[in-house]
Design goal:
Elements: H1 6-13, E1 19-24, E2 30-34, H2 37-46, E3 53-58, E4 80-83, E5 86-89
Antiparallel strand pairs: 1-2, 1-3, 4-5
């Protein structure tokens, strides 16, 4: 079922790229970051004597990294520690719980 309602179709078009708002002073120095335009406007109005402005800043796309897979023929053995003649693996298994189920 498609979106037949004109109002719902216009809401889909309103989706924007991820962004935030940056409040700057008259020299262009960053004062603060805001998540919404309303908060940026409020920050400018609260500090009206400093001539603050705000700009919308879009997040840059993440960098893509190529990763190569390595095949391992044998499973990796865990390192062990020698203690009093015994070799103990560093990762120890927890003992089985002896608790009984709670019956309500």
């Amino acid at each position: 079922m498609g979106l037949t309602n004109k109002k719902l179709q216009t809401q889909i078009a309103k989706i924007e790229a991820p962004h935030y708002f940056e409040v700057r002073d008259s020299t262009g120095e960053r004062v603060c970051h805001c998540g919404s335009e309303r908060d940026a406007i409020a920050a400018c109005e609260r500090n009206w004597a400093y001539d603050y402005t705000y700009v919308k800043v879009y997040f840059s796309p993440p960098k893509t990294v190529n990763v190569e897979a390595i095949s391992v023929d044998e499973p990796l053995a865990l390192p062990t520690v020698k203690l009093k003649g015994q070799e103990i693996p560093l990762q120890q298994n927890l003992p089985q719980s002896e608790l009984k189920e709670l019956e309500l």
